[in-house]
Amino acid sequence: MANTSEIRNIDTGTDDLLARIEGNLGVITFNRPASRNALSTAMYAGFDKVLPELAADADVRALLITGEGGAFCAGGDVKAMNASHTSGEARTGQATDLEGRVAQLRSFQRSVSLAIHEFRRPVIAALPGAAAGAGFSIALAADIRLASENALLVTAFANVGASGDFGGSWFLTQLVGPAKAKELYFTSPRLTAAEAQDLGLVNQVLPAEGFAEAALAWCHNIADQAPIAMEYMKQNLNRALTADLSSALEAEAAAMVRAMSTADHREAAAAFVEKRTPVYTGE
């Protein structure tokens, strides 16, 4: 396993979002526990700053996104929304006119959900508790989701008279199909971790006790794999969402030959024959 004793904190520009590199694993943490990690404008700016930095760091072979204080992310800050409606004043950092707010939300979505989906290495969302609304959408943007047995997942938009954002409708439709996605959006049921796993929304359900440590260990196992191969693997799997078979086969062939031309592939083959754990260098 990668050396987890070496921890390097990364400046996100805000205390609302924390980031660090632990061994070969990048970790991003929503950090507004008093509001169940409801989203803030500072968080969007933090993602916009830190995701490109982590993607460019050769030490980062996988990325974990989680939440502090027992929740993943409650989505939009409904209390702040209500205060804004009551006062008639725009929330801090929010554009004032309709078209400006549309452009701003599009920018936020690209900085978070699209950047997570296109992050070059595997991204795992670890849900210690609630993932609701846009928080649920952001969890769906990850490649894999781990959930505490106490986690709760809900689209939530119907409950606040909103239509949905941060790609939830697209990701959910890819995972469960259009009919089920529409049901989950229109009726907004509160899904337990077990129910979400049955639907294919959650990959693994882990015990609540020791969840953070277990999720870290799970993600370090991904980070220990050959990074170039994992990068090509993610490209292939993302491409499968939109490409036809012929195009997918063409791209797979190129990626396979390139991956098998690396020093990491030679190391993996030797380790297999010698019955030892391979040590990958990312070359």
Overview of this protein structure:
This protein has 283 residues and is α/β, with parallel strands linked by helices. It has eleven helices and ten strands. The protein folds into two domains: 7-223, 2-enoyl-CoA Hydratase, Chain A, domain 1; 227-274, Lyase 2-enoyl-coa Hydratase, Chain  A, domain 2. 47% of the residues lie in helices and 15% in strands. Strands 1-2-3-4-5-7-10 form a seven-stranded mixed sheet, sandwiched between helices. Strand 2 (17-22) and strand 3 (25-30) form a beta hairpin. The longest helix has 21 residues, at 98-118. The protein is globular and about 60 Å long. The protein starts with 6 loop residues before the first strand and ends in a 9-residue tail after the last helix. The mean pLDDT is 93.
Secondary-structure map with pairings?
Layout: E1 7-10, E2 17-22, E3 25-30, H1 41-56, E4 62-67, H2 78-87, H3 98-118, E5 123-127, E6 131-132, H4 134-141, E7 144-148, E8 152-154, H5 168-176, H6 178-187, E9 191-192, H7 193-198, E10 204-206, H8 211-223, H9 227-239, H10 245-259, H11 263-274
Parallel strand pairs: 3-4, 4-5, 5-7, 6-8, 7-10
Antiparallel strand pairs: 1-2, 2-3, 8-9
Helix pairs in contact: 1-3, 4-5, 5-6, 9-10
Question: Can you summarize this structure?
Answer:
With 283 residues, the chain is an alpha/beta fold. 47% of the residues lie in helices and 15% in strands.
